[in-house]
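Exercise 4. Each item below gives a protein and its sequence. For each, produce the structure-token representation.

Item: Trimethylamine monooxygenase (Mycolicibacterium poriferae).
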Amino acid sequence: MTRTAVIGAGPCGLAQLHAFEQARLAGADIGEIVCFEKQSDWGGLWNYTWRTGLDERGDPVHGSMYRYLWSNGPKECLEFSDYTFDEHFGRPIPSFPPREVLYDYIVGRAKKSDVRQYIQFESPVRAVSFDGAAQTFEVTVQTWEPSGDSVLRTESFDHVIVATGHFSTPNVPEYPGFDRFPGRILHSHDFRDAAEFTGKDLLILGSSYSAEDIALQALKYGAASITVAYRTAAMGFDWPDGITEVPALRHLEGHTAHFTDGTSRDVDAVVLCTGYLHHFPFIDAELRLSTPNNLYPDGLYKGVAWTANPRLMYLGMQDQYYTFTMFDAQAFVARDLVLGRLPSPSPQEMAADVAAWRDRYARVDSIMEQIDFQTEYVRDLMTLTDYPSFDLDLVRQHFVEWEHDKDESITGYRDKSFASPCTGSVGPTPSTTWWDEPDDSLARFLQR
Ligand code: FAD
Ligand code: NAP
Ligand code: MG
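Answer:
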């Protein structure tokens, strides 16, 4: 019997289990599927934890999400085409839900397709290697006895699908003066509650989504001032009073931050919104994806199959405009490669396909072109399998409109409504604005 390991039960791993389960229900022989998840529950980053640093077993905490985190894109851009928001909530809901609502939705589909049966929790994978003689992958997993003693066991698999995410291991730069700063310096991975910074002057490094959202959060929950230092380019939004963008940090001197334009500010704390590393220490070097965060990592056929050994696959390793639907489309491709429904191309064909996509990506130089690039990538994936179709052009249009909305009002874009690419239903306008709504609970959201 064919054995397939899925590593991780976040949105990607759950998409993979769902894809297999759909095939099984339709009568396919899917072999044996085993999903290993290091946490005690599913949902990946969406499974909120207050913990930072190490988890209860001494592993790095996976979670990077924080309290009061709301979707930063319209939910209509990530809607599962085979499990709509209307189906899950029984009625249309506003377009920008908080974390708990999206978690409920992701888990809702996983419960409906009953994929929990495939998952072994509290089971971190410690090693993945390939046995050339046996032509199988050797996967080493750690588990714990009720006594607390841990056990390592190694199993053989014909296919391995890595779905461990890439927004968990922080990229932590150092600037002169960090070692003598008399306040807290933390990475966004360890940021949990904006109320910690009420009344404080905050310095944020970075100019991407984390910097943008943590700056807004901090102000919303009462920080005195937020200074955002960019390395390459300012975000350039029309920021509310209290948030200022400045050029790169040069150094800290006591409480004082000095920037490359010669200006300086006194700050109480520093949040490094400096991104994450693709980090797979458990995978043998020749199987290990090594890439910066971009829209088409090298070495992955269709963005999924490891070209040097395509029975190893990776999900969700791209930078992400598209999320849940892209993960679904990838998971259907991975499934069909495993089941032999999609032919496994020759190394030359795979290399040529990857090169063509990366060539195209090299010519992308604006946000709108990035959106188009990832739209075409998802479109390509969707032609390969029977993943139920949805109005991809509408989603593309939503992303474009969303970018314009953000430029128009960075505090107001989350109050806009979008139409579902699956059902056409339009998210109702919430009765309170995002800026004036401190409560991010599911119960409160469903009343808005
Ligand atoms: P993850 O969600 O990271 O899940 C990976 C899983 O693998 C985890 O459960 C982890 O415990 C497990 N794992 C890791 N290592 C091992 C191991 N060795 N053995 C076993 N299990 C392991 N996307 C959106 O669409 N909308 C948003 O608003 C949004 N907000 C975000 C906010 C933040 C702060 C961050 C960091 C990301 C956000 N994202 C958002 C993007 C996010 O990447 C995706 O939504 C999604 O969580 C990715 O799913 P994943 O399964 O690839 O990875
Ligand atoms: P990211 O998009 O990879 O951005 C990393 C940022 O760090 C870039 O701006 C980069 O600047 C900067 N940087 C890297 N090294 C630096 C250094 N040495 N000094 C100064 N700046 C440095 O990472 P992210 O912003 O953490 O986003 C990760 C994911 O989380 C995204 O998918 C995002 O959508 C998601 N997210 C969502 C929300 C939400 O509201 N739902 C909130 C936060 C994050 P350069 O431009 O100079 O390279
Ligand atoms: Mg812009």
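Check: The first strand starts at residue 3 and ends at 7.
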